[in-house]
Structures are given as structure tokens and as C-alpha cells.
Amino acid sequence: MNLGAHMSTAGGVHLALERGRSIGCNAVQLFVKSNTQWSARPLEDGEIAAFRALRRTFRAGHVIAHTSYLINIASPVSALLEKSRESLALEIERCAALGIPSLVLHPGSHRGEGLGEGIERAAESLNAVFAATPKAKVAVLLENTAGAGHTIGSRFADIAAIIRGVRRKSRVGVLYDTCHGFAAGYDIRTTRAYDRTFAEFDALIGLDWLKAFHLNDSLRGLGEHLDRHVHIGAGEIGLAGFRRLVNDPRFFDRPMILETPKGEDMAEDVENLARLRGLRRGEARHMNPPG
């Protein structure tokens, strides 16, 4: 299967893969550096070797990374824009060293300068970063957003426009977050709504660009633009939407990653993964979501 969760790298990046394997993940997402700091300690050779050895136990493409939350490649503030580009390049190089093929990135915020300018600046940033990392075989996956404030990427047209502006298109793709999509107004709760959402994605971007998913239920309602992740089946999307997604044969080869709340023992991940696997088998309707 292709189901997994975001894992902590506490103690070393390779431990994220060990933690994922310990609870039966077939896919793992991790940070390759602190998600709240610009600086990063160098990766040690032994750490890289341990990670690469464990990575080979996963299907190709089912280990992905997520960028720091500090990065804003659409920022109109020159100092922040430059720091964001440098940090993204650093994370791409770290992914390349670890053998991680995909790095998830929020498209950023235009900070009130206008959506069009923000989209253009985001594409320019990707072009600059890809030019600075020519040997790295790492694709940046643009993640759709909930649409709060001045963020870019809540509409499929935003993401399509950024991709059009990227010269090295082999190094860009898309990750679809179910909570963000729902918050932005893309419904998947009924068959008609699900089909309409992904038909629009296909028409504006193309399903071939869709490389991975974040599976998160939404605390808040459709189109409210609030990013609040909750456990599978415990939110406004409900089980029906996730049942359609995990059983869609078009996406069986795409990693589907949980980003739902959990404790150190990862018990909630275990329960959410069991629910998703049950949905694929048609057995999960009577299971209660994690508390």
C-alpha cells in the first residue's frame, strides 16, 4: 500500500524511517532540517549511510521531505526572499544527499503585494534555486493551501500559473492536502463533488503533476479557509471522502501521508492508518476515530 505519516527525526534523520516502519508505514514524510530555524547542522556521513540503507526498504518515491515553515519564496521583502531561496537550495541539497526525490513546499505569501506578483516571484524563486542546484535530482512539490490571508496556492489556477513559469518542469510537481483543499472550497464528500474536484485539477494542472497527498480531515467547514487538521473521520470531510480517495486506482502509486495530531507513542497514527486501510478494504465504517 501507499499509506504513511510524517515522522520525527529526533536523534537522527534515519530514525524517522525506523519510526515509520515500526508502525507499519509504507510511506514517510520528514523534515531534513529544523522546520523553525534557518540554520542546520551538517549531515554526517554515517547518518546519510544509515538513512539510505533504510530508504531502500520503501518503494521508490514513498519517502518525501517537507520544507521549513519559514520559507516564503513569494515574499516581496528582499532579505526574506533571499534567505528563503538559500534555505530551499540547502534543503534540496540535503534531500539529494539522503536520496529523497521530493521536497514539499508551500507556495508562499505575497504579503499584500498582489496575487499575480506573488505567483511570478514564486516561479522566479524556483528558477533561481534550480539553477543553483543543477545536479540535484530532487523535485519540489507545491502544496495546495487553505487560502487564509495572502497565501498563494489555494486555487488550482495559482499552482498551474507557477508551474507555467518554471523552466525546469521536470523538477516541479504538486502535493494535494485534503484539509487544505476542503478549506479552500474543493469538496470530496460525495461522488459528484469528488469527481468535479479532480476533473478541475486535471483540466487546470493535469493529474500527471500530482505526485503525493496529505491525508488530513478538517475541523472546519467547506470553504472556510481555516487550516485545522483532525483525525480521519473526525472532521467535516468524513469517511466517505477518504474512502473515495484511497480507492481511486489513479493514485495507488502516490504516497499518502498523515499529518494529524499525535503523541510520542504514535498511537493515533496507528489508528488512523488502520482506518484508512479498512476504508480500502471496506471494513472501517464502524471504527471510532482516535480520541
Could you please describe the fold and organization of this structure?
The protein has helices at residues 14-22, 45-55, 78-98, 115-132, 156-165, 178-183, 191-204, 238-246, 267-281, and strands at 3-6, 27-30, 63-66, 102-105, 139-143, 172-177, 210-215, 217-218, 229-230, 256-258. It has 291 residues and is of the alpha/beta class. The longest helix is centred in the N-terminal third of the chain and has 21 residues, at 78-98. An eight-stranded parallel β-barrel has the order 1-2-3-4-5-6-7-10. It has a two-stranded antiparallel ribbon with strand order 8-9.
Radius of gyration from the CA trace? 18 Å
Give a short account of the largest sheet: 8 strands, parallel, barrel
What global shape is seen?
globular
Strand content: 5-15%
Number of H- or I-type helical stretches: 9
- Given the helix and strand composition, which structural class is it? alpha/beta
Instruction: Give the N-to-C terminal Cα separation.
Output: 25 Å
Strand order within the widest beta sheet? 1-2-3-4-5-6-7-10
